[in-house]
Design brief:
This protein is of the alpha+beta class. The chain is built from 11 helices and 15 strands.
């Protein structure tokens, strides 16, 4: 099977509509380099995965297409560190691998598609800001965007509702500092700053958000738990697993949110060299994926996302599980990772008189070109 044959590219260029389809977008003239890099990445990945990759990347269904992109990206990332694909576990998204140390592993690849595009998000926020700067009143206010605004939303109803609210505030007919604007597509929260402004001064103090880390975790957590439970119920349950979560846009998941989800609350955080922090975890603590005895076969998680300015480039970082039955070392992943430093663990354990895992960020940030 050939990926992106000339006839398919020509047919999709002529196809009316379907502009939302990733496959059609990739077959447009401006993505010639991306097509070549994907072809090259599949060839380098070897024949085991080639047919599956071509099948997924030939789909007009964005979920199937991006699952193919995610698997090609995850294989490219692990291949740079010496991992080798040895087989497929059907149904996907589990790939059988051989680690650099020679052990047998499963690479579970989960693809995540965002509902909105960064350029549309920025323009919608700018439209909201411009509309609210025309509001008339006397009381300064701030706005929190609770979720991303649709690209085609009408700001005028929001502006009129805001002016009505501020008129009630000025007439002492509003209790408290907060107000909300919600409909099927928009969710905004307004807050009075406590300042009055003179004529001609802007009422809008700032526009904040949306802060997506919590919502991102709400989408990621059930997918991860479901896939790990499926792995534990399969014939490969005794094989250690490495998770790869791949997103079509930069992950809106802060290191703190990811750390608490995977490791739980730390016992202590110690500053060392400039820009370096040692995070120490005790044997017991809050509920977390890596702490759960059910998931001691999980060696770690890769977070991979597409570079915002380069369609054929992905960014890779890793979180390693210090409590795993088959722990991975930073050298096993070969790019920036949050992993245990055994020497530091011994040092802080002696100092605190209790067994602690000392975790630090190690290695350099990795931008990986496909192909």
């Amino acid at each position: 099977m050939e990926l992106f044959p000339d006839r398919l590219v020509t047919d999709l260029e002529r196809l009316p509509g379907a502009s939302h389809s990733w496959l059609k977008q990739v077959c447009s003239p401006e993505y010639v380099e991306l097509r070549e890099r994907l072809r090259s990445a599949i060839v380098r990945g070897g024949p085991i995965h080639a047919d599956r990759a071509v099948d997924l990347l030939s789909s007009l269904d964005n979920r199937r297409f991006f699952q193919g992109f995610a698997e090609v990206s995850a294989l490219a990332a692990t291949r740079t560190s010496g991992w080798e694909l040895t087989g497929l576990s059907q149904p996907g998204p589990r790939l059988e691998m051989r680690a650099p140390s020679g052990g047998r592993w499963v690479l579970a690849v989960l693809a995540f598609l965002h509902q909105a595009r960064p350029d549309g998000e920025r323009s919608s926020a700018a439209l909201l800001r411009a509309g609210l700067q025309r509001v008339q009143g006397k009381h300064r206010f701030s706005v929190l965007i609770r979720r991303w605004l649709p690209h085609d939303f009408d700001v005028d109803p929001v502006r009129r509702a805001t002016e009505t609210w501020l008129a009630q505030v000025a007439a002492n007919r509003w209790e408290g500092r907060y107000a909300a604007y919600d409909d099927d597509r928009i969710s905004l929260e307004f807050c009075l700053t406590g300042e009055k402004v003179r004529k001609g001064e802007p009422l809008l103090a700032q526009v904040l958000g949306p802060f997506l880390a919590n919502r991102t975790l709400e989408a990621v957590e059930p997918r991860i738990v479901r896939e790990l439970d499926r792995h534990n119920a399969s014939s490969l349950r005794d094989t250690p697993v490495l998770l790869a979560c791949v997103a079509d846009q930069p992950w809106a998941l802060s290191p703190g949110y990811a750390r608490d989800f995977l490791y739980g609350r730390p016992r202590a955080t110690i500053g060392s060299e400039p820009g370096q922090t040692i995070t120490c975890f005790s044997p017991t603590g809050s509920v977390a994926v890596f702490r759960d005895p059910t998931y001691r076969n999980v060696g770690g998680m890769l977070l991979i996302d597409r570079h915002p300015d380069a369609p054929a480039r992905v960014r890779v970082r890793a979180w390693l599980n210090p409590w795993a039955d088959h722990p991975l070392r930073p050298a096993d992943v070969g790019f920036r990772c949050f992993g245990e430093d055994p020497a530091l663990s011994a040092q802080v354990s002696a100092s605190w008189c209790e067994p602690l895992r000392a975790m630090t960020w190690q290695g350099l940030p990795a931008d990986l070109e496909l192909g």
